[in-house]
């Protein structure tokens, strides 16, 4: 069957695996939620959305669009078009200032 798009995936920053502002991506939504019989869903697709890794930043950056070509073990090509955009985050301390001061003393 011919389709314009096999899967549409929304990937975001995985706050549960965050370590010092660095993390992995996590699939937030996927359409359709079930696999097509003729085109299986590729596990680990979230790694292709941010190939340099995921990091929190307070700076706004321009949206980026690129296409990756994934080749499976049978030499079939799968095209992955990515639109990457960032939302700024406010970084707040996790400990009150007086507790941090006590640790420094």
Automatic annotation (TrEMBL):
GO molecular function: guanyl-nucleotide exchange factor activity
GO BP of this protein: regulation of Rab protein signal transduction
UniProt xrefs under Pfam families: uDENN (PF03456)
UniProt xrefs under InterPro entries: DENN_Domain_GEFs, Tripartite_DENN, uDENN_dom
Residue ranges that the Swiss-Prot or TrEMBL entry lists as coiled coil: none
SMART domains according to UniProt: uDENN
Chain ranges of the UDENN domain: 6-105
One GO CC term, this protein: cytoplasmic vesicle
Protein name: UDENN domain-containing protein
Organism from which the protein derives: Leptosia nina
Lineage start: Eukaryota, Metazoa, Ecdysozoa, Arthropoda, Hexapoda
